[in-house]
Automatic annotation (TrEMBL):
Listed SUPFAM superfamilies: MFS general substrate transporter
InterPro entries assigned: Dipep/tripep_permease, MFS_trans_sf, POT_fam, PTR2_symporter_CS
Keyword Transmembrane: yes
Protein name per Swiss-Prot or TrEMBL: MFS transporter
Subcellular location: Membrane
Family to which the UniProt record says this protein belongs: Belongs to the major facilitator superfamily. Proton-dependent oligopeptide transporter (POT/PTR) (TC 2.A.17) family.
Keywords, sorted A to Z: Membrane, Peptide transport, Protein transport, Transmembrane, Transmembrane helix, Transport
Length: 515
């Protein structure tokens, strides 16, 4: 095992405590303090909008961080300098607890700082391995994901209590201190890391090959791919023009999705035209990336469901009964935000359970738990968790007082889905990415989270429409119950499509060669 791995794992544990510490109390803080000037009937919707807009930023800026690392600074320097911006963002949250603009500035700095961390720490872990020890990489990726949830567990358990008992300055200040520690630990290992230098300007880069494919002419043939990409550009401009009615975040993110989707389709239609102008390896590399992006696109519904445990599920928990519990004589009642601690503690249990029991059992009965099979099953399990949470909401809408402990079942289903999708996806993204583009590919992995939260914003905006609201009212469901069953159906349909695509996908091995 590479000796430098403990520095990266320790850094990630502290950073995840800092991130989830502030993230998991964000919705309760918005509802109880920062958004009190908003009428109570609109406060929940606005809190969800702020939360998911923040998450969109957190997972959008990795595009920038991945590009900077791959072309200019390298992974280590990018992670370190963006971490300092991250620390400044935490400081703003603690200082500007009663200042709307100052607090939003802090959220923006954290989102921007995350852009240099999220896509690169995972890739940086992969860089520490080569063909001689790549068999240990899966163990480290699992340990990496385990430590993320170790930090998240204690943050989810403690920060709601600090928010309640000591106020937002302390509750947001403690995660900032942990982020500063994370940055220091990462710096301490600087001389032990394997530093893969940023890629030199490459005439056979992904963007160069894609541009050649779209613009190249073939004798006697039109350029249908270019027309498709052009249609996507026009649709993106139309989306941006809808900013006054949709809001900037929805309009801009939709424009980005349209550009990527139509551009990718256009490139795939004309990719063979790039041969000759570029090497065969470069052309096949672009084809590999496009196939990976299809997988990423179909994972976006999972993130729609997963990230709402910190918004929609907390809103539901606020209206539930929290019974008095007793452990070894210590009596307590769970705060709504503390229910999120169920997720990381289950992750820490399920990762070793899967490796020791579930996956060997699957192999014993002749079913190989390939990454794509695991991810497809994970999406389906997330859909089932939302069926359960929707049934609980129907129970509550009927006027019954429901214990908050009923949320344990959907949390268990969602967490099992998370382990199968997210932990597997980190390994899949690194192993499938061509060597010069590992940082940017992992950025696209995180962009899938942005798109998942975009679906949430679109649905939230849709239910506020008078026509849609009237139709929901006529269905006999409350607005929140309708959204729960809608997202469950959305994920179930995509899980079926994912299974069909997984059958055709051919895995590759892009781990670094022996030095």
């Amino acid at each position: 095992m590479p000796r430098q791995i403990p520095y990266i794992i320790a850094n990630e544990g502290c950073e995840r405590f800092s991130f989830y510490g502030m993230r998991n109390i964000l919705t309760p803080f918005l509802l109880s303090t920062l958004l009190l000037f908003i009428p109570i009937g609109d406060r929940t919707t606005e809190a969800k909008h702020v939360f998911h807009t923040f998450v969109i930023g957190v997972y959008f800026f990795p595009l920038l961080g991945g590009w900077i690392a791959d072309r200019f600074w390298g992974k280590y320097k990018t992670v370190f300098w963006f971490s300092l911006i991250y620390v400044a963002g935490h400081a703003c949250l603690a200082i500007f607890e009663n200042n709307l603009n100052g607090f939003y500035l802090g959220l923006a700095l954290i989102a921007f700082g995350s852009g240099g961390i999220k896509p690169l720490v995972v890739a940086f872990v992969g860089d520490q391995f080569d063909q001689t020890n790549k068999n240990r990489a899966k163990v480290v990726f699992d340990a990496f994901y385990w430590i993320i949830n170790f930090g998240s567990f204690f943050a989810s358990l403690l920060m709601p209590v600090f928010l309640r008992d000591y106020g937002p300055a302390v509750a947001f200040g403690i995660p900032g201190i942990l982020m500063a520690i994370a940055t220091g630990v990462f710096w301490l290992g600087r001389k032990k890391y394997v530093h893969v230098p940023p890629a030199a300007p490459n005439p056979d880069s992904f963007s160069s090959v894609a541009r050649t494919a779209l613009l190249a002419r073939a004798p006697g043939q039109s350029r249908p791919g270019l027309m498709v990409a052009g249609a996507g550009a026009v649709a993106a401009v139309i989306s941006l023009c809808m900013t006054p009615s949709w809001g900037f975040v929805i309009a801009a993110c939709t424009a980005l999705v349209l550009l990527l989707a139509f551009g990718g389709i256009g490139v795939s239609m004309q990719l063979e035209r790039a041969r000759g102008a570029h090497t065969d390896a470069a052309v096949e590399g672009v084809r590999s990336v496009l196939r990976i992006l299809i997988v990423f696109a179909m994972i976006t519904p999972f993130w729609s469901l997963f990230d709402q445990k910190a918004s929609t599920w907390i809103v539901q928990a606020n209206s539930m009964h929290s019974p008095l519990l007793s452990i070894f004589g210590w009596e307590f009642t769970l705060l709504p935000a503390q229910m999120q601690a169920v997720n990381p503690i289950l992750v820490m249990l399920l990762i070793p359970f899967n490796n020791i029991a579930l996956f060997p059992l699957m192999r014993a009965v002749g079913v190989t738990p390939t990454p794509l099979r695991r991810m497809g099953l994970g999406i389906a399990l997330s859909a089932s968790s939302w069926v359960v949470i929707g049934m609980i909401q129907l129970w509550m809408d009927g006027g019954d007082q429901v214990s908050i402990l009923w949320q344990l079942l959907p949390y268990a289903l969602l967490t099992l889905g998370e382990v199968l999708v997210s932990a597997t996806g980190l390994e899949f993204a690194y192993s499938q990415a061509p060597a010069p583009m590992k940082g940017i590919i992992l950025s696209f992995w995180y962009l899938a989270v942005t798109v998942g939260n975009l679906w949430v914003l679109i649905v939230n905006a849709g239910v506020k429409n008078d026509v849609v609201g009237g139709w929901i009212a006529g269905s006999g469901l409350s607005s929140i119950a309708f959204q729960m069953f809608f997202f469950a159906a959305f994920a179930a349909v995509v899980a079926a499509l994912f299974a069909l695509y997984a059958i055709r996908y051919k895995m590759v091995d892009n781990y670094r060669k022996t030095a």
